[in-house]
Amino acid sequence: MSDILERILMLKDTPFFSAVNTDDLHVVAQEIQEEAYLSGDRVFDIYDPSDRVYIIRSGKVGISIEEDPTRKEFITTLGERECFGEMGVLDDEPRSATVHVIEDAVLLVLEKTKLRGLIATYPELSLGIMRSLTARLREANRRQT
Amino acid sequence: MSQVSRFFLIKESERRLLLYFFTLFVLLGVGLALGRGSADAMFFKRYGIENLPVIYALLSGVLAIASLVYASYADRVPSEKFFYVLFAGLILLVTVAWYLVNLETTEYVFPVYFLIFEVGSELLPLHAMLYIGQNFETLQAKRLTPIIFAGAQVGRMVGGALLALAVPVVGVPNLLLVWVAIAIISMILLWSHHQRSGVSPYYRRVRRGRSLVKQSIEQVMQGIRFSRQSGLIRASFYSLFFLVLSFYILSYGVNRIYTSHFSSEESLGRFFGLLTIATGTLALLIQLFITSRLLDRFGVKKVNLVYPVTSVAAYIGLLVSFALPAAIIASINKDALMPAVRNPTRSLFFNVLPDYMQGRARALSLVLVMPAALAIAGVMLIVMQRVAAPEIFLSAGLIATIFYCLSNIKMNRAYVAALMATLRERVFVRGHASSKSVIGAREAPLQHELVAGVHHPNNNMSLEYARMLSESYPELASMEIIKRIQNSENTMRDKLARLLVNQNLPALKKYFATLPDDADDHLRATILTILFNARDPEGRRYVEECLSSSNARLVATGILGVYRYNMNEIREDVRAQYRAMLLSTDTAENMAALELLRHCPDQIYYIELLKLLGSHSERVQQAALRALALWPPGDYPGLAVTLQALYRSFNHQVRAGCVDCYRLLNDVDRHRLTLSALEDSHPLVRQAALSVLLSAGDDIREAAIPWILENAGTPRAEEMLLDSLLQTSLPKAIFQRIALEKARYAQDLYYAQCVLKNAATDPGAPHFRLMRIVLGERIVQVVNLCLTALKSTENAEAIGIIQAGLNSGDSRQVANAREALHNLRHIQIVKMLDDVVSREQMSGRPPDSGRCEFVSLGPMLDWCTGLPDPWLKRIAGNLQQKIGLAANE
Fold first, then answer.
1. Nearest neighbour of A121 by CB, restricted to B203, B681, B878
2. I want to staple B367 with a disulfide (CB 3.0 to 4.6 A). Which of B67, B114, B215, B574 is the partner?
3. DSSP states of B225-277 as a string?
4. Mean pLDDT of B155-176
5. H or E element, residue A104
6. How far apart are CA B57 and CA B565, in angstroms?
7. CATH of B12-200+209-426, one of 3.50.50.60, 3.40.50.150, 3.40.50.1820, 1.20.1250.20
């Protein structure tokens, strides 16, 4: 149980799930798997199919948009409690970047099919996700203006 | 420091920004005090107070032109950039004025300098208000504006002191250079702040227009249009008009007394300095210790009437005694109460307008309203000062003040409407337009559009349009749908034909006759079902043909025909055939028979139906549930157990189907299972439960009320039930009780959150954090519930807007929603809610009143674990366990 609660908190801290209520997040937390990656690993490559969303439990990853997935020129780095790969699981587009593990990382992984199944069963989940995405969009707009 | 912050209602995160604004306003205040004193003293003594009315008339024109330019740019660039322009212009003009005064070649420099000061003293504070508006949200502004304006008062006091001390030493003219120096410092401060923090956060870029003249005219026209749209802008214009009349007549009166009382420019200058210190100090004290609390205690509308009332009193004082003491009192009114009470309040009124209106409304008041009022004041005084008795112009001023008072009452009424309109616009709450109302418009273009939609090549689009058309124009729909059927493939034909039930039978029969022999069996079955259900005589001849078909759906249609045409001679055979289909292992036969069961709810097949509910196919389960749901209430042994088992399905449609069948159960089972289904994870299932509950009659509905009152369900389920109960004829008192109960519950939850916050030794620990988050979520949900209950007695649309505002996550909209909340009628509930909402954002102090008995973490967690809310109970239980373990260790 303790692990589930920590996962709920972790999900709540990510921008993708921040607006989802904790009781809805509880079901998401139950479907999440944990995976360990070593420094130097690639979580996925650019143009790979978008099949999972990731949340960093510990460690650090770098995001590269280079055509060559082996090149490590990062446009940004992400750390603990940050989320990546979330757009692809919603719009089905292939990965738009390669993710390199910079420091040994433990990632929480949610399969696209599971996420969609959860959304079908718990529609309020999608409302929360929409709220989160809208908040990000508003923030981006605000920064732009 | 924290105590000071708490006293002045300042959040920690705001301190730095507030300090900056305070300093900037101090500088503005110093500058304006020096400008005021020097302009007045030089003008009255060197040019003559008798020329003041003429200057008023002139000022109106100058102000109009200056304001027109201001209106063109006010909200087109971030307010800080416009400040640079204002400061630069001021520095240049005052320096030139100083030079000309020292040259002593022309006396016209005095009225010109007076005009420069008057324009500057109007534009700078006006722009400062816009600047505040672009940097703070409404409630933040409500709390902090008085403190910021207090900065201006401090500045005025410092300026007054400088005036009093410096005049004997450097003379009045050299004060102009001091003002220039202060303007330069202000510019540097502004620049350095925005270098660090970037553009004002609530500035929204406005589309650039064409030429300056066109832009200016457009701005003015827009302002006029806005004044037609917004009652608040209109009322504020009336208010400003009469205020200007009242203010300038009062100023003229008191300055006449001062000029005749003090013989020299220096003594007058010194007196102005001392008066500025006195009025500034008073204004500061009022602003710091009274205004915020007045606004908080009485609300913006009542405070809006303070200055008009004191102005009436000041006029009466001058009418009674036209001498120095009454003049000083009048000066205190216009120079202390006006900046301390009236200006912050007016700023709050403008803050509720949308951003794009604010700048133009403010500018228009400067371009048209103020100059017009000023010109009238000037002309009135020119005429009236020919009569020596001051009572004449004072009476005119008093009448203007009374009108000012009435305009402010009007402004108060418009305030709430403007607040709601702005909030609605900002949170995008649209009025509910049902498809019926749209379709019901019965306009030819709409019909054409719907018909075109029916013929849309995309099947889904076509079906949707066909559905809408058949709901609104059935006759037209049948013709168009048949046309579309002819151009569709089989599945689509079947779906479209289903929409034709009970519509235009002759057309349908004609179409059926044209069907080729190899036409799709489903389509044939659909059309025959329509004919049989209508007991159409021509349909009877198809019955036996259907019964001998190899297609299960056609066979089922044939059986329907036997029932509809009462063909008793073959009824027994048909029943056997029907039963065989229900018991068949072929899903297609099951489905066809179940579809038939919907048309002929014959209860002799109950056992077969019960078996089909246990089918492995979810399609069959759903079809069986759909058929069962249409049966009349009665005694169905074993149904409750079967439905309960089936309700465990992962498929929400199966669960919703089960709930639809709950109405066949006895009262006890129905009530128990339906209430439990209200907690389902899927809204469709909850909706189904709600329908069962609402159709069950008053007893069950009334039984649901205690369920809500006792907080027995999750807020989500309660919200849904409450929403539906609001559509019923239950007494309003019940909803008021619910609202009150929810407000109390929200307070309890908030109190629990405070206890948690104060007790947590490690607030960042996961269990504490999660508990805090869950309590926060519940507070929001329960506040929403309370507001929903208030919809029964308040304006439901207004409540919806407030809810949307509170849930928007945008601090500005939350602030506006809270402001709107105060205008609801249920004062006690509103106070309780506002306590919770505001304090959740502020400091975490417990509410003043409450019924909670817990004072520490242990009892609070006991209380939470005793609640029926399963999630809150679980999280509280976990925290309890964690604390227990830690204590044992």
1. B681
2. B67
3. HHHHH-HHHHHHHHHHHHHHHHHHHHHHHHHHHHHHH--SHHHHHHHHHHHHH
4. 86
5. strand A98-111
6. 95
7. 1.20.1250.20
B769 close to A (CB below 8 A): yes
The domain segmentation of chain A, as residue ranges, is 2-113+122-138
Which tens digit of pLDDT belongs to each residue from B28-87? Answer: 999 998 998 889 888 888 888 888 888 888 888 888 888 777 767 766 778 888 888 899
User: Would you say residue B487 has pLDDT above 80?
Assistant: no
- Token readout for B338 is 């006006």
How many other CB atoms are found less than 10 A from the CB of residue B500? 23
- Kindly determine whether residue A121 and residue B652, on different chains, have CB atoms separated by under 8 Å: yes
Helix (H, G, I), strand (E, B) or coil at B380: helix
Q: What is the dihedral of CA B786, B792, B796, B801, to 10 degrees?
A: -10
Q: How many CB atoms neighbour CB B827 within 10 A? A: 9
Percent of chain B with pLDDT over 70: 88
Residue of chain A whose alpha carbon sits nearest to that of B652: A121
Nearest to B288 by CA among B65, B581, B10: B10
How distant, in Å, are the alpha carbons of B253, B260, B792 from that of B317?
A: 12, 19, 50
User: Which single residue is written with the structure tokens 């400067």?
Assistant: B366
Look at the alpha carbons of B630, B632, B636, B640 in this order and tell me if their dihedral is positive or negative: positive
Chain B touched by A87 (CB under 8 Å): no
Which of the residue ranges B9-18, B335-344, B687-696 would you say has the lowest mean pLDDT? B9-18
CB-based contact B359:B31 (threshold 8 Å):
no
Neighbour count for residue B825 (Cβ, 10 Å): 10
d(Cα B786, Cα B743) in Å, to the nearest integer? 6
Distance separating the N- and C-terminal Cα atoms of chain B:
38
Contact call for residues B217 and B148 (beta carbons, < 8 A)? no
Q: What does the CA dihedral B556, B561, B563, B566 come to, rounded to 10 degrees?
A: -150
- Cβ of residue A21 closer than 8 Å to a chain B Cβ: yes
Q: Which residues of B150-160 are buried (b: 16+ CB within 10 A; e: fewer)?
A: bbbbbbbbbbb
- Residue B841 confidence (pLDDT) above 90: no
DSSP 8-state assignment for residue B824: S
Under 8 Å between Cβ of B244 and B334: no
Report how far Cα B727 is from the mean position of its chain's Cα atoms: 23
Q: How far is A125 from chain B (nearest CA, A)?
A: 10
Each residue of B429-448: pLDDT tens digit?
A: 544 443 444 334 445 677 88
Among A22, A118, A130, the strongest candidate for a mutation testing the B interface, having the largest count of B CBs within 10 A, is A22
- Tokens 């489905």 label which residue? B591
Backbone angles phi, psi at B837, to 5 degrees: -65, -45
DSSP B663: G
B290-293 contact pairs (CB < 8 A, 24+):
B290/B340, B290/B341, B291/B146, B291/B340, B291/B341, B291/B344, B292/B8, B292/B9, B292/B143, B292/B146, B292/B147
Task: Give B-chain residues touching A22 at CB under 8 angstroms.
Answer: 770, 773-774, 777, 871, 875
Q: Taking residues B440-463, what's their average pLDDT?
A: 76
| Contact: A123, B683; criterion CB under 8 Å | yes
Q: Could you say which architecture CATH assigns to the domain A2-113+122-138?
A: Sandwich (2.60)
CB A107 within 8 A of CB A56: yes
Q: Write the pLDDT tens digit of every residue in B3-25.
A: 666 656 667 677 788 889 999 99
Residues 6+ apart with CB under 8 A from B220: B68, B71, B364, B367, B368
Among candidates B203, B681, B773 on the partner chain, residue whose Cβ is nearest the Cβ of A12: B773
